[in-house]
Amino acid sequence: MTTPENFLCALCLMAWGIPIVYFDIRENRIPNALTYSGILVGLAVLILFRRDALADYGLAFLAGFGVFYVLFMFGWVGGGDAKLMGMIGLLMGLRFLASALVYIALAGGLLALCVMISLRAKGRPIRGARVPYGTAIMAGSYYAIFQSLLGGGGI
After folding, report:
1. Domain coordinates of the chain in residue numbers?
2. pTM of the predicted structure, to 2 decimals
3. Which residues contact 108 (CB under 8 A, 6 or more apart)?
4. Interatomic CA distance for residues 147 and 99, integer angstroms
5. Residue 53 gets which letter from DSSP?
6. Which of 6, 22, 108, 135 is the most exposed place for a label (fewest CB within 10 A)?
7. pLDDT digits (tens, 9 = 90+) for 2-26
8. Where are the alpha helices (DSSP H) in the chain?
9. How far apart are the C-alpha atoms of 119 and 142, rounded to whole Å?
């Protein structure tokens, strides 16, 4: 069921997504101002409207951030990507995060393939190429939002 606070959080995530993708592609980083402000909005919504669901949204934050923090420790993603996943978990909850991770992985694979093909076409080496994974995170999240709205399952 879509509640006003779920709809608000989905709108915030979509609004934050535009500058996140811009900075990720242009500068290869996601500014802390974007992720931290999104986390603050998530905390405010949690305190004001979702006190009974603290475990769900808190666990979603820890799962999103934790999984990507491990990937960050291996050097596979950036720290901004980990904070972004924590923000998405806090805003949207555990159920959304689980389905979005599938779409994020698919978008990331597709983006990596596009980067690889582009580099090959230019005759540049693939090894050490950087993939703006925050873009894949936002693409997968947008798709998950639209799927939940179109599928009738709500956000």
Report:
1. 4-150
2. 0.92
3. 131, 133, 136, 137, 140
4. 10
5. G
6. 22
7. 788 989 999 999 999 999 999 999 9
8. 4-27, 32-49, 54-73, 79-92, 94-122, 133-150
9. 27
